[in-house]
Amino acid sequence: MLTHSLTLTDRVAGRIAEQIAQGFYAVGAKLPAGRDLAREFGVSAAVIREATERLRAQGLVRSRQGSGCVVLARTTHQGFQVTFDTGMDRAQLAEVIELRMELEGGAAALAARRRTPDDLQALRGALAELGRHLDDPERGVEHDLAFHRAIAQATHNASYRQLLQYLNLQLRQAVHTARSNTQRQPGLAARVHQEHEAVLAAIEAGDADAARQAVHQHLRNAAARLQLAPAGA
Questions:
Q1: From the CB of residue 209, how many other CB atoms can be counted at a distance below 10 Å?
Q2: Which UniProt keywords apply (predicted)?
Q3: Of 226, 225, 229, 223, which Cα lies nearest the Cα of 101?
Q4: Is residue 161 within 8 Å of 149, Cβ to Cβ?
Q5: Quick one: which H or E segment has residue 61?
């Protein structure tokens, strides 16, 4: 299932990149809406989201919620890039969790120091939506990522938000793998949700150290549940 989804993502992202390179979509033009692209390529909305995230990471498009994707360049940027191979193996997954531990732990600590009432409202809303979809892996992934984006927003540091967006495809796959695994064990989804609640509680309390540790504990537990080499040990 995982390999099949990523193969579809490769094909769709590659085809759209070809269309951009050939001028079918001009620089400055908007790509069709996600539902239209899904219909054109005969794939799900999730595949289109992953494909456009890959194009954005390559510097071909800019995406903003509610405004779609705008073409930025006809060829990929040759700067720093994090590779994402088809079929993330266990070593790669462990590396992503380890990266998340430091990146998201730092973001949570900053969020605890800088969060505003609006930030807290966004965090509570994202976590409430996640709680309502604990038994739905696909929608759960979206709300899980939304919660972590809300933490990045609460740092009031644009670089955190941009870096998390850049790594969206890797984070999405890691979260999808973890949540799919959670569904196989009765009662585990609720315990994982409590780990997210602990992160929010520390941010609400303004306790930077506790927020960082709550993220670290959550991701260490995620690695253990997937029987990966201990991340951050």
A1: 10
A2: DNA-binding, Transcription, Transcription regulation
A3: 223
A4: yes
A5: strand 61-64
Q: How far is the CA of 76 from the CAs of 1, 83, 95, in angstroms?
A: 29, 13, 25
Length of the chain, in residues: 233
Confirm if 196 and 203 have CB atoms less than 8 A apart: no
- CA-based nearest residue to 17, from 65, 69, 66, 67: 69
Which residue, among 42, 207, 221, has the nearest Cα to 109 in the 3D structure? Answer: 207
Q: CB atoms < 10 A from the CB of 208, how many?
A: 18
Question: What is the SS3 assignment for 162?
Answer: helix
Give me the residue label for tokens 């992503």: 96
Between CA 227 and CA 146 the distance in angstroms is 26
**The Cα angle at residue 176 between residues 170 and 179, in degrees rounded to 5:** 140
Q: Which two tokens mark 189?
A: 């989804």
Residue with tokens 């079918």: 24
Q: Give the integer Cα–Cα distance in Å for 202 and 183.
A: 26
Q: pTM of whole model > 0.70?
A: no
Dump pLDDT digits (tens) for 52-83.
Answer: 888 887 788 887 766 788 888 887 654 444 44
Distance in angstroms (rounded) separating the CA atoms of residues 142 and 128 = 13
* 200 — pLDDT class (breaks 50, 70, 90): very high
- Output the six-digit token pair for 74: 């006809």
Identity of the amino acid at 199: V
Give me the amino acid identity at 15.
Answer: R
200, 205, 207, 210 alpha-carbon torsion, rounded to 10° = -40
